[in-house]
Amino acid sequence: MSDDIISEEMQQLSDWLNTVCRMLSGVDSAALFKAEGSTGVIQCEWPETGALDDPARINAEEQVDLALAGNKTVVSYTGPDSQCIIAHPFVLSGGQQFVVVAIFADSNINPRNQISLLEWGVAWLRLLDRQHNQPQPQLNASASGLSSSPQFISKAADISVIGLVKSYRLSVLTVLILLALLFTLPVDKTVTAPVVMEGKVQRSLTVPVDSFIKRVAVKAGDRVKKGQLLVSLDDTELRLTLDQAVSDRAVADKKHRQALAKLDFSEASQYALDRDIATIDIRLIEQQLSRLELKAPISGQVISGDINRAVGSAVERGQTLFELAPVGDYRIILNVDETDIRYVQTGQQGEILLRGLGSQTHPIQIDIVSSIFSSEPGQRYYHAEAHLLSEPESRVRPGMEGSAHIVTGKQLLGAALFGPFYQWGREQLWKWWP
């Protein structure tokens, strides 16, 4: 294959990648890899050559290897609140295998919509590839003498220009028809919302009396058993009070016996009363001492509270030191945007992607759509509650965050792509119209 043909193919692939990236939503950079053996060699980059720095290139090459090994689309996240990487493999005529890699700066994008656009772009590239590989008519030997005449060259040039114009028009018409058909494809109507994992039951460990922290036995993230000692509060003052009460009881008991020996029953009765009062005081103080040892009310995991560096500091009655939740029993809290809450209903299903678990998704079902909301500057979110439909893996922890996609029905792809712009335009027109 000549260098001119290779250069032309590279330019066509670069133009195709540029067109596809302009259709994707929120793409930060992209690259096209050609399979050579079990790995991929980069062919072109977007928005410009060298768009992928070394860390991004290494991450992209890892996803390309995974996509080629499994021969399927790979969606991955490099870390919490990080980029989303989609690697989509495909094969052109002649068995050439490629992988297109798109890197999105926003980890909350909907991978399904982006993969649908990539699949459409690959179908378009295959159509262009088949047209490009169609055999061209060759001049026979009898016409070789005419090819050198000026009239023949002029006529051939005119025919070539006309053919290019017709081919261009046909390509444009084909693309428009494909777009029209694409926009009428039915797709799932999904609502995307940020989520956080919480324990289905959460218990707080609070301070019973004003005191000082003497010792901390656990930290946030530790697993504990019911009754396990978590925090010890300072008991110096109560110990002194207890010693005084024990001494008072011993004195009252001694004087009671002396009064009995003297047959002074009135005085003996008074000392007996003093002894009983001291005994009651001792029991009360011992109960207070037992309350200074704060133990786990349930078996589970400490999900909040980091007081290891607060040893010796004062704490007030009612102050929360730790929060605990049972392991494996979770609820999922969704913060649904006010523009989407009308579509979310109890019983709907979807899936969540937790950033701490990479690309693995978990099926969920909506249990409660609440009227409770939280506000941020310019936005308002309503809370919905869901549960996992599958057994959570051991790596799931309370407090993990991610994104949820809830399937609320069907809609046309055109409505999915341009519906938000249409809604925004209607709202602006309503505000402007008198």
TrEMBL record:
It holds the Pfam family BSH_CzcB. The keyword ATP-binding does not apply. It comes from the Bacteria. Keywords: Coiled coil. GO terms for cellular component: cell envelope. Residues 207-325 form the CzcB-like barrel-sandwich hybrid domain. Its main location: other. InterPro entries: BSH_CzcB-like (IPR058647), UPF0194_transport (IPR050465). It is found in: Cell envelope. This is CzcB-like barrel-sandwich hybrid domain-containing protein. It comes from Amphritea japonica ATCC BAA-1530.
